[in-house]
Amino acid sequence: MLFITFSFLLSSLKPLLLKEKIYLSPPDLKGNEQALLKNVFESNWIAPQGPMITTFENNLSKTVSVSYAVALNSATSAIHLGLKVLGIKKGDKVLCTTFTFVASVNPISYIGAVPILVDVEKETWNICPVLLEKAILSEIEKGQKPKVLILVHGYGMPAKVDEVLAITKKYNILVLEDAASALGSIYKNQYCGTFGDVGVFSFNGNKIITTSGGGMLVTYKKELADKTLYLSTQAKEANTGYEHHQIGFNYRLSNVLAAIGVAQLELLNDFVNKRRENHLFYKNELRDVEVSFLEDTINTKSNFWLTSLLFNSHEIKEKVRLSLLADNIECRSLWMPMHQQKIYQFAIFYSNGNSDDLHQRGLSLPSGSSMSTNDLQRVCKVIKNCF
Ligand SMILES: *Cc1c(COP(=O)(O)O)cnc(C)c1O
Q1: 0.90 exceeded by the pTM?
Q2: Active-site positions, per UniProt (predicted)?
Q3: How far apart are the CA of 149 and the centre of ligand 1, in A?
Q4: Are 185 and 153 in contact (CB under 8 A)?
Q5: Which of 24, 107, 260, 345 could disulfide-link to 79, CB 3.0 to 4.6 Å?
Q6: How far apart are the C-alpha atoms of 72 and 74, rounded to whole Å?
Q7: Is residue 11 part of a domain?
């Protein structure tokens, strides 16, 4: 009896004991991170300023070919300051996709500006240009033209940049690009984050490169970069010490974390290539399963930050999601759109039903750059067993 109980216990523990957790998108610290950190400690630049920050900014602006970069403590802060330096004020209207992470939209609220949410198109899951123009015309008719568009490249997939910029140009609307998850993604030979008046990247722990937490604002305009730096470091007046003419923020990236960023950036191409290989592996291995992937179009080269796919129904998506979790594999349903969130139920929303459907049927799979072939096979096996 005792033996039976014991062996039952053992066999029920077995999956937990043997199956290592596969994370959605864990940090991949295989480069010069520790060497550069040692350098920071030895030089005593444990501060929100220092040479690593400058190096990180210079290297990133060179990598994506943009004139100026300002390192900040998160992409959320970068979006907040981006809106501020573009002159967005309380009561101004700000356009944004509804289908995104909440940090794209919250900075609109920080300022007391008004979010205008727009649904997505089916090809890239990013803002629908047709609906965008409808939204702008309708808001103009109501008496107030939106001042800026937050253009998100979701899941690393470039949005329909040409179509969107034609519209923002036509109506003279500024563009803040939320490329938080799209570092290294390319649209027609140009890096995401470099199309707008300002662009934003994230170095959160789950992004394509990480500083544990961090962000960057990039721009071609010196005055916008200078203003961002000024606001991010408590808005100190030059050469005075403690005199302030504006309300600033404490949003600068630490020199310690910038060292991690410098090392991670050296590996960006590797990371993009590996995530693109993950995507190909999944597509190939699941070719006989009834799913459809978010895929490149002829104009895009996505970094495939998270390989994401749609199932035929909510029920089968849930079955797969729960089976993966039971196998100690992390996965996520696609974003809950902002118009469905309690905090944004009041927001004006231009709908075509697409984002609701994506949230119902879509899933992101483990996509980290350190995944082994065995890991990828394990994920695919669980998915196939659901059919
Ligand atoms: C991750 C992410 C953010 C927030 O980035 P943080 O650096 O964590 O503040 C914003 N927008 C999108 C689209 C993201 O994926």
Answers
A1: yes
A2: 207 (proton acceptor)
A3: 16
A4: yes
A5: 107
A6: 6
A7: no
Q: 372: domain range?
A: 268-385
Show the ligand 1 pocket: residues with CB < 6 angstroms: 74-76, 100-101, 103-104, 152, 178, 180-181, 202, 204, 215
CATH number assigned to the domain comprising residue 195:
3.40.640.10
Q: Whose CA is nearest to atom 2 of ligand 1?
A: 180
Whether residue 273 is found in the same domain as residue 234? no
**Å from CA of 357 to ligand 1 middle:** 22
Is residue 89 a contact partner of residue 113, using CB atoms and an 8 Å limit? yes
The minimum-distance atom of ligand 1 relative to the CA of 100 is 13
What are the E-state strand segments in 35-152?
68-72, 93-97, 114-118, 148-152
Q: Distance of CA 184 to CAs 194, 227, 378, Å? A: 11, 26, 28
Ligand 1 atom at shortest distance from the alpha carbon of 213 = 7
**Structure letter (DSSP) for residue 21:** P
Across-strand partners of 68?
219
Pocket-testing residue among 76, 105, 192, 206, ligand 1, by greatest number of atoms within 8 A of Cβ: 76
Contact 211, 258 (CB under 8 A): yes
Considering the candidates 84, 147, 160, 207, report the single residue annotated as catalytic: 207
CB atoms within 10 A of CB 240: 9
- Provide the token pair at 193: 């984050």
- Digit-coded pLDDT (tens) for 191-206: 999 999 999 999 999 9
- pLDDT tens sequence across 149-179: 999 999 999 999 999 999 999 999 999 999 9
pLDDT for 19 equals: 87
Written as six digits, the tokens of 90 are: 């309380």
Cα–Cα distance between 301 and 295 in angstroms, integer?
9
User: Does 203 lie in the same domain as 62?
Assistant: yes
301 among known catalytic residues: no
Of ligand 1's listed atoms, the one at least distance from the Cα of 153 is: 13
pLDDT digits (tens, 9 = 90+) for 339-357: 999 999 999 999 999 999 9
